[in-house]
Amino acid sequence: MSEQDEQVDMTSLEEETEDPELVPEDERGSGGVRMATDVSDETRSERASQTIWDQTPEEMIEYVEREVAPEGVEVLDFDFLQSFLSLTDDLHQHPQSRQVFRTMERAVPEFSLRVVENGLGYVLPYDLKSLYQVADALEFRWLREEGGEVQPGGAFKIMPCMRTFGHWVGELWPIDDDLDDDALIWHMRGFDMPELPAGMESQAQVLWTLIAFRDEEEEPGRYDLYVYHPEKKEFLLLNLKVIDYLYCALGACGAPGWQLLFSTYDFEENRWDMPHPESWITMVEEYFPSFDTQFFRNQWAYQGSVEEE
User: Fold this and answer.
1) Where are the domains of the chain?
2) Are 307 and 260 contacting, i.e. CB atoms less than 8 angstroms apart?
3) What are 259-280's pLDDT values in tens digits?
4) Predicted pLDDT at 146
5) What is the DSSP track for 53-89?
6) Which of 31, 36, 255, 259 allows an S-S link to 10, with CB 3.0 to 4.6 Å?
């Protein structure tokens, strides 16, 4: 494991869990993630006071030389990483959380970004580039206990820059020989492709988010985000750009299907069999009473009004 990879030891004061399927062997070693079972309040208090991360936020964040965006252009900054670290810290200390995992890779050097841009033939948008100037890759997943049962809480996995801009044709879906060269799927790349812990794959449907660049001379580098069902091989346009997407992913704690709230998905038909937004919004409110979820509720109300029309 690299020094940037982190896992939270949820049972450093207890014996290993009795259910091996929930905790793969490669996550059980020194500093590995384990499932907490039958933890007393006294033990929780003692555990919460321990130093749970190998590095402090200041040690994890590497400040690199970065191109300055024009005035008025929104970019991601290091406040996002602080929010990312704070959320995972809070989840670790929550009495109902049972497994928390996070990793963060260092920022992409400017030279590497220029190599990508030279290959694409256009300059990356400032908002997207600012992500890679803060961190190359981010991953987060967690489990929670409800009614005595352990279930997925949420996850996201922002792919590394070089992976996102690598070869995707044929990986996301079978390619039809009759496809036009301008077909949308030729321009789609993996952006957020979360994974659930071993043994949990059947308990929740994980959706991916793809990024598609429009090959247009008038607007080179313009992109859209799409939510993608990897089994049905269907996708829907998202009404989000990168920065809003990342903060929404944090605000929703990576809840399965949160992206659909920002699409035209019909929850009454629910053809993808996804959780209703009310369920994960309520979960977030119960876990974090201080969180302001009104933005999600307003979006849900707006989507409902559009469906009625």
Assistant:
1) 5-308
2) no
3) 999 999 999 999 999 989 999 9
4) 84
5) -SS-HHHH------PPPPTT-----HHHHHHHHHHHH
6) 36
- In DSSP notation, the chain reads --TTEEE--TTTTSPPPS-GGGS-GGGSSTT------S--HHHHHHHHTS---SS-HHHH------PPPPTT-----HHHHHHHHHHHHHHHHSTTEEEEEEEEPPPPPHHHHHHHHHHHTSPPPHHHHHHHTT-S-EEEEEEEEETTEEEEEEEEEEPPHHHHTS--TTTSSPPPTT--TT-GGGGEEEEE---PPTT-GGGSPPPEEEEEE---SSSTT-EEEEEEETTTTEEEE-S--HHHHHHHHHHTTT-TTGGGGGS---TTT-TT----HHHHHHHHHHH-TTS--HHHHHHHHHHHHHHH-
Calculate the CA 230 to chain-centre distance.
16
What's the token pair of residue 72?
């008025």
CATH class of the domain comprising 5-308: alpha beta
Type of residue numbered 103: T
Task: Return the structure tokens found at 7.
Answer: 């896992």
Distance CA 142, CA 153 (A): 5
129's torsion region: left (phi>0), alpha (psi -120 to 50) or beta?
alpha
Distance CA 224, CA 210 (A): 8
What is the C-alpha radius of gyration for the chain, rounded to an integer number of angstroms? 20
pLDDT of residue 2: 45
Beta-bridged to residue 146, according to DSSP, are 149
Spatial neighbors of 41 by CB under 8 A, at least 6 apart, are none
Strand 149-158 vs strand 97-104: parallel, antiparallel, or unpaired?
Answer: unpaired
| Tens-place pLDDT, residues 3-19 | 444 443 333 223 333 33
Report how far residue 78's alpha carbon sits from residue 87's, in angstroms, rounded to the nearest whole number.
Answer: 14
